[in-house]
C-alpha cells in the first residue's frame, strides 16, 4: 500500500511540474493537509450561532430635506420675491411686526419692557420698509415652512440653525466702503469734491450725508479715462452711459463675452450656436 500511494503522488507531481524527480513514500505520507480558512460567519455557524448583522444608523433624511427646502427657496428669493432683500434685516423686522400683530389680537402676552423695546426698534424703520419686509418675510415662510419651526423654537439649537441659514458673508469692503468703488459710485455732481478730499466725501457717502438716489447718476456712468473725468456740469447729458464699464457690460450681454474687451471699432467674430 505505501508503494502504491507513492506512485500516485509521484505521477501527480510529474504531471504538474514536468520534472523527472519522484516523491518518496515517506515524504508523501508526512505531507501536511491544506488548511481550511473559514469566514467569521462560517465559524459562528459551526458553533451553532447565527452571525449578527451590524445595525446601520439611518440618516436623518427629513432634516436634510428641510434644509434643502430652505436652500431651494433661497435661490429663488432674488429672482421671484425681492432682488435686494437682506435676510437678517427682513427676518428681524418681520418677527417684530408679527409680534405686534399677535399682541394686538391678544394671542401674545408680553410685558411692558418687551413692548417698549419693540416699538423703539420699529420707530427707526420707515413704514414702506416695514411693509415690504413683512410682505417678503411672509412669502419666504410660505415657501419654506421649516423656517417657521426654527423661529418658533425656543432652544439654543433652533436659534443657532436659524442664524446659520440667515448668515451671509461680510460686505465690509464693498460699495462706498471700498476706496476705488466709492469713487465710481459717487454721484457725479460730488465727484470734483471727492477728488479734492476723498476721505471726507467717502465718509459723507458712508454716513448718508450725501444722498445716493435714483436721480443721482454715479460717476461710472460717464465716459473718461477715470470714471466721470470728462463730465461737464453745464451739460449733464453729455457722455452719459458711455462709461468704460457700462459699455463693456452692454457688449458682453448683447454682443458676446469676447467683444467686451475689444477696442472700439474692432471686429470680433463669434461662433455660431
UniProtKB/TrEMBL annotation:
Residues 50-60 have a biased composition (Basic residues). Residues 1-68 are annotated as: Disordered. Residues 10-32 have a biased composition (Low complexity). InterPro entries: DUF6698. This is Uncharacterized protein.
Amino acid at each position: 500500500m505505501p508503494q502504491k500511494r507513492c506512485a500516485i503522488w509521484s505521477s501527480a507531481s510529474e504531471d504538474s511540474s514536468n520534472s523527472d524527480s519522484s516523491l518518496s513514500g515517506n515524504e508523501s505520507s508526512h505531507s501536511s493537509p491544506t488548511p481550511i480558512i473559514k469566514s467569521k460567519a462560517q465559524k459562528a455557524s459551526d458553533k451553532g450561532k447565527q452571525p449578527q448583522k451590524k445595525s446601520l444608523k439611518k440618516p436623518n433624511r427629513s432634516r436634510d430635506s428641510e434644509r434643502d427646502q430652505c436652500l431651494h427657496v433661497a435661490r429663488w428669493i432674488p429672482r421671484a420675491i425681492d432682488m435686494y432683500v437682506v435676510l437678517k434685516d427682513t427676518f428681524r423686522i418681520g418677527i417684530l411686526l408679527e409680534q405686534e400683530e399677535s399682541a394686538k389680537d391678544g394671542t401674545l402676552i408680553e410685558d411692558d419692557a418687551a413692548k417698549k423695546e419693540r416699538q423703539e426698534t420699529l420707530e427707526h424703520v420707515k413704514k414702506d420698509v416695514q411693509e415690504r419686509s413683512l410682505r417678503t418675510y411672509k412669502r419666504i415662510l410660505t415657501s419654506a415652512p421649516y423656517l417657521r419651526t426654527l423661529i418658533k423654537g425656543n432652544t439654543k439649537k433652533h436659534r443657532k440653525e436659524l442664524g446659520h441659514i440667515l448668515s451671509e458673508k461680510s460686505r465690509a469692503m464693498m460699495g462706498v466702503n471700498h476706496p476705488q468703488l466709492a469713487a465710481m459710485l459717487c454721484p457725479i455732481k460730488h465727484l470734483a469734491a471727492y477728488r479734492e478730499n476723498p476721505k471726507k466725501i467717502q465718509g459723507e457717502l458712508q454716513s448718508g450725508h450725501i444722498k445716493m438716489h435714483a436721480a443721482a447718476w454715479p460717476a461710472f456712468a460717464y465716459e473718461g479715462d477715470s470714471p466721470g473725468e470728462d463730465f461737464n456740469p453745464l451739460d449733464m447729458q453729455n457722455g452719459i452711459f458711455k462709461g468704460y464699464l457700462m459699455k463693456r457690460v452692454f457688449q458682453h450681454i448683447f454682443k458676446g463675452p469676447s467683444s467686451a474687451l475689444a477696442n472700439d471699432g474692432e471686429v470680433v467674430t463669434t461662433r455660431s450656436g
